[in-house]
Amino acid sequence: MRVLVLGGTGSIGSAVVTELLKKTHMVTTLCRSNSAAARARELGAAVLAGSICAPADWVDCLSDMDAVIHVATGFGTDAADVDRALLSEIFKHAAGRARLGAGGAAPDKLRFIYTGGMWLFGSRSAAPHAETPYQASAPWQWAADGCRRVLLNPDIHGIVIHPANVTDDEAGVPPILLADARAAGHIRMPISEEATWPLVRRDDLARLYAMVLEHGAEASVHFGVSEAAVSRAELVRRTALVTGLAAEVRVIPIEVWQLRYGEWAIGYSLSQTGAPPADSAKPRLP
Question: What predicted TM-score, i.e. pTM, was given to this entire model?
Answer without folding.
Answer: 0.94
